[in-house]
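Sanity check record (used in CI):
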Amino acid sequence: MRRVVPSLVIAGLLVSGGIVSCGTSAESPAESPSASTSPSAPAEFSIPADQQDKLVPADARTITDPADPQATLVLFTDYQCPYCAMMDTLIQQAKADYGDQVQIVVRNYPLPKHQNAEPSARAVEAAAEQGAMEQMAAKVFEHQQDWKTESNVDDIFAGYAEELGLDMEQFEADYNSDAIKDRVARDLQDAQDLSIQHTPTLLLNGKEIQFESGAYSEIQEQLDAALGR
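Expected output for Thioredoxin domain-containing protein:
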């Protein structure tokens, strides 16, 4: 049985008939779940075949990775973007419904205008090194209002790691490592090279899913079509 995505979440995703998002422009208005930001990308936006390796690198983080995936769903997310927090609910639903057939990939797109987007991405990446990517992502999204404007978030994210029972020595080493910093920077560069214009951006087999209502059914319908259901 499929979970019903809460109507409050869906309502929060809707502005002027489409899914709202955090735009890449530094001049975009301040985001809050009740205010519109930049519009969705143009219809039919897709990644060229010769750039698929940049879309899904060999070492990309996955939340589902079936042995023989029938489709690939890629999410570009910014952990400081309120709409990415909302999208996370839909992605978790897709994982529950399609995880045995669909590879779901999560890429970082820490928008430069968001002061704590990069360290929050590093916190999630550091947790991923201990198999806790989704748990840390849930923490940073849940407490987004607590850290988004803080001048020093290192201790806050370390606190989340401790709550998750992670090895703290390893977490702090990974969080501050060049390897994790480079991974986040590479994801950002790939997003920019691929002309991703906003977060969240969700692509199915290289083509962006365009939202009209913001309902989970819009993801569901396209996944069903891709799987020949």
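The two ends are 16 Å apart (CA to CA). If this sentence no longer matches the regenerated tokens, the check is flagged for review.
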